[in-house]
Amino acid sequence: MENISKKLTLLALLLVAFPTLYAQKLLSVEDTTDGIGVYPCGERKEALVQFVTHESFGLNFESNYDSELNVQLDSVAGSKTYSIVFVTQAPGVDYSGRRVTIKAPGFKDFTMPLNLQAKQKIEFTVSDPYSALRSPYFVYQDKGNDLFYNGEYQGAKDCYEMIKACPEYQINKASVDEHIAICDSMVEWSAQALKQEHFAQFNDAVETYYKMYRYNSSSESLREKISNAQYKFAEDCKYEMTLAEHYMELGQTDQAKACYNRVIEKKCNTLYVTEATNSLAYLNRRESKARERARCLFYDWSPNQEIGLTFAQCYNQKRRSSGYITARLNTNLIKMMMGKSSAEGALNVSSPSQITAEDWTYKDYVLNSEGNMEPKDLDFEAGMSFGWTVRTWRYFFIHFGVGYRGGGFYTFDESAASKAVSKWRDDHPTFDYTTEFETWDKSLKNDCMKVNWFNGVTPEAGLIVKVWRLNLKATYQYTYWLNKDGYTDFLDDNTTKFSLGFGFNW
Distance between CA atoms of 87 and 69, rounded to whole angstroms? Predict the structure, then answer.
């Protein structure tokens, strides 16, 4: 049965080989070194390579690194041994890429890598594979697959190229060509990944390694390269952010922006990209303000002696909105808070035992329809508003917003006056409360009063003119009073306010 099987195998090989009978045949080269070969050469950096053949044809050799080869031929009982001594080390020369080509009549040239170490002895047996019913197709296919999975893609391609000289190639042409194309891609991607790592493009290198991983997922070396590139990528992103913060502390914003841009371009993790994007937006806004002198400061004034400050941002780009904030107060409010003001008027004490509202004579107050005394205007007030600014044309900006307005006035209070005078007399035994009120101490007069305070919501709008470094502002404000407490007519007469402002920008 064994003889029949061999005959059938031989017949099948002959049938397959028939279409390519006149094509060049392929040599079979096998490493047949016995044990660990040692070449005793003293201190010389040399290695011995022997090519043994039992075939009738002779062999010739060429080397890409050695212009001339000293080949020693020994023939014994039909066996020929070709011995060649190779130099393994020389100053400035890297022999790791040495390749030797074996030539034989009627056979395709066989090129093999020959990476030798000093004092090494290697033996190769060269034969005609078809003479012994051996197919190199499967030999080189297996060898190419092993090299491929070990990451030696150029060597794998060389093996697949050898298959093209085998008869089986015509049947498996598509598969072999695909393997060769994949090897070419893997060689190209490997070089590309190394270049990307060299230029600190670690994220791109990871993507390149993953493309290779799809074809060689069993490679431990490739998994290690992916892990190392990912670690370097994370460290590189961290370094860029740390460097950007350092530049920000030094005020070197151009260098900081370059670091933030690199973080975004490198596609770092989401946290770093978000932080870099926000920082860039902040720096761009700050530079835009400095370039356009968008920051404006106004001193505000209104007819009721109210003063205020407004800070606004007015960008020259049309339709780009920004904001403003205003704080206002009446100077009398400060006096009221310090207890140094009161309703103007006089006190004529009619009864030594009790001070009544009738004893108080107001100055510039009137009796309203609801039976309460009221002044012509608010004695003290304060307010705050905020809103938006929008450029309309050239130097003109509109501003609009909403805010709070609060204010009020003093009225005489009998209960507060009795307590204040009683306390004052205890502290000042010689005090004569029947004297004219104008001679009383200011703090005592203030203690005899009560504060009537009102709160309101204030929508407002106006115009800003920004020319060169100077600013002008006009604002109209309307107040919706939330509490009126018997002063409806008075508050209705104090709903509108007009203020002017002037200032500068930077």
Answer: 11
